[in-house]
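QUALITY CONTROL LOG
STEP: pairwise intake check
CHECKER ROLE: data steward
CRITERIA: each record must contain a sequence immediately followed by its structure tokens, with no blank fields

ENTRY 1 OF 2
RESULT FIELD BELOW
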Amino acid sequence: MQPTIEQITLRPDTWRGFSSPASTKPDHYFTTTTTIAPANSDWHGVDAMPTGHTALDQALQLGGWPLHGGCEVLCDCRGMGDMGLFLPTMRNLSEQGRWQALIDPPHIPYAPQLAAEGIDTPQILMIHTRSREERLWATEQALRSTTCSVVFSWLGSDDYRYAELRKLQLAAAENDTLAIFFRATDASEQHSPMSLRIQLSRYHDVLIRKQRHGRPDIQVTLDSHEVAPHARTWQEVMNQSQTSTPYDQRAS
């Protein structure tokens, strides 16, 4: 039997926005968060993966990183020290046995450092591109593929059209691949289609500038006991590793 107009208008997912709180249930190493989404939205049955930082999870509307939408990270982009924020995520995703793609990272990660954090280094897939167009293409292809559990892409300080970023956001929404885009802090003045936008001054100081259906401009300081013990030396190891090649690089 077809629903009546009155029944359709009373449905909470007919209208833009969310009308009911998210419900959460634990499932293995990540938490699935499901929220009623509007019918004109591309967010139906949103999943989130905990960040590994209690204070950050509590401040995020979804309770973690969005698995069906992009996360934009604004930082100085001159090193990989800010990757310390994602070490718990990389460690958890190692259990999936899928690639963890790093596209155009500023330095080559140091394999012993990753192994010390419990990250399966054979899963690290290095992709180096030769232009911004190749970078966008490689990022989109990695996101649309089901072979990656996470895609870290350093978009850098280049200017990107809204349509280009929207294309990446749509690709990130297609499956459960976690999408993390690093951009320069200057991009904070530009409008972004990403589901989540955070800014880092240090890996344990996080400013949530934008989150879909959640409060913006929330400052979060991570608990020092939850920060990986090796993360404080992350930048030093990255600098030391510039002259080394700890594992094979794979280029697109």
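ENTRY 2 OF 2
RESULT FIELD BELOW
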Amino acid sequence: MCPFWRRSSKDLSTQKEKEILRQLYNSGVCAIGFEGGEPLLRKDLPEILAYSSSLPLHTSIITNGTLLKSRIDEIAPYISGIVFVSLDGMQKTHDLVRGVDGCFKRAVEGITAAKDKVSITINMTVMAENFHDIEDVVKLAKDLDVKIVLSVAHEYRSTDATAPETDELKKVAQQLILLKRKGYPIMNTTSYLKVIAKERNWNCKPWSVVNVGTDGRLVLPCYVHNQYETGVSVFENSIKAASSAFDWEAMRGCVKCNLHCYVEPSLVLSWDLHSWADWIFPTGK
């Protein structure tokens, strides 16, 4: 999974988090996902989510689910988007990958406790270590009456996950397309699944996603190129100015990863450096 948790930095204050949210909104961002580490470890999370929701930003979080059962009532009123719960496989595989016995059980308990209060989606990273569990996790999502989104692991320099081989990826993508057609609750578009099956071409538009690190600095152009290193501070520069000044043209044609958070939006946007500027940074806010 993404090695965000390896970054060594202190949490920003509640006020600083709100400043970032206001900047994101003023820059034209319409939706936000709070990720970690583990966002539910923050005691001030309800206040941060409440502020995000009030702007209004379409507000989601990504969690390992182990604290979800105990905190869902605090956060549910402010989740206008989705609570993504990460599952890396069925019980044996998930606990092995996470390195904590019992965390699969707690995550599923969290999903069960929360699914009638917020929209829940299982978030599964496809890697060599859990390749054999993919169909079972998709079926588990259906049994739990929630959705599932899958993304292919990327081998960052600081991650322990191993991306599946190309032939394996093609097989699993074709399998997922069939399951989706049969009505299984797979959120990924068929277009994305065809990308990882090498049946469709794509060009990344990383400007469609704004990433802010735990230090309040932008990740430009994306996590894959930066390996999680951040640059411009959002407290010293506006997000709109920093993003507009970046040489996005240098990223044209990049297909370095299969991460759905970059591939999915890229599939629906054209590479027009005039139209995208109006789309991602609209005037009037």
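INTAKE CHECK: passed for both entries
DESCRIPTIVE NOTE, ENTRY 2: Residues 166-181 form the longest helix (16 residues).
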